[in-house]
Amino acid sequence: MAMTPLIDVIFLLLLFFMLTSTFSKYAEIELSNATAGGAPSDAPQDRAFIQLGAERVVLNGAPITLEELTEQVTTGQVLISLDPDTTAQRLVDLLVLLRGREGLSVLVLE
């Protein structure tokens, strides 16, 4: 049995998989822009506590949707607590809605 046709087939498969795969870079989300050793400010800061689950979002103890959340949380500090059933995609969806807002700091609790 000749090995040449088998080597040709393996080479063609290797070439096919190399040409059809993508090498694109996925989008990144910056999770923290915290500074170390900052002095606490004397001005009162608005704080919002968000509990994020697979099927629920709770803002300061009241159930809410993600669309309503973006309208109610505009400035201040946001603390996000994750339920055990929360997926990474659900957290990313929330962080995308909150990113880029001036005067808003987001902290994900462990």
What can you see in these coordinates?
- With 110 residues, the chain is α/β, with parallel strands linked by helices.
- It has a domain at 45-110.
- It is built from three helices and five strands.
- It has helices spanning 4-20, 66-72, 88-98; strands at residues 47-52, 57-59, 62-63, 76-82, 104-108.
- Strands 3-2-1-4-5 form a five-stranded mixed beta sheet, with helices on one face.
- Strand 2 and strand 3 (62-63) form a beta hairpin.
- It is elongated.
- It starts with a helix and ends with a strand.
- The mean pLDDT is 79.
Topology summary:
Elements: H1 4-20, E1 47-52, E2 57-59, E3 62-63, H2 66-72, E4 76-82, H3 88-98, E5 104-108
Parallel strand pairs: 1-4, 4-5
Antiparallel strand pairs: 1-2, 2-3
List keywords for this structure.
alpha/beta, 32% helix, 3 helices, 110 residues, 21% strand
Quote the beta fraction: 15-25%
Compressed to H and E, one letter per element, the order equals HEEEHEHE
Determine the structural class based on helices, strands and strand pairing: alpha/beta
Number of DSSP E strands: 5
Distance between the termini: 61 Å
> Given the structure, what is the number of helices?
3
Shape: elongated
Write out the strand line-up for the largest beta sheet, numbering strands in chain order.
3-2-1-4-5
Oligomeric state of the chains in view: single chain
Major sheet size, sense and barrel closure: 5 strands, mixed
Uncertain regions: pLDDT < 50 for 5+ in a row? none
Overall mean confidence score, pLDDT: 79
Alpha-carbon Rg, integer? 23 Å
Percent helix = 25-40%
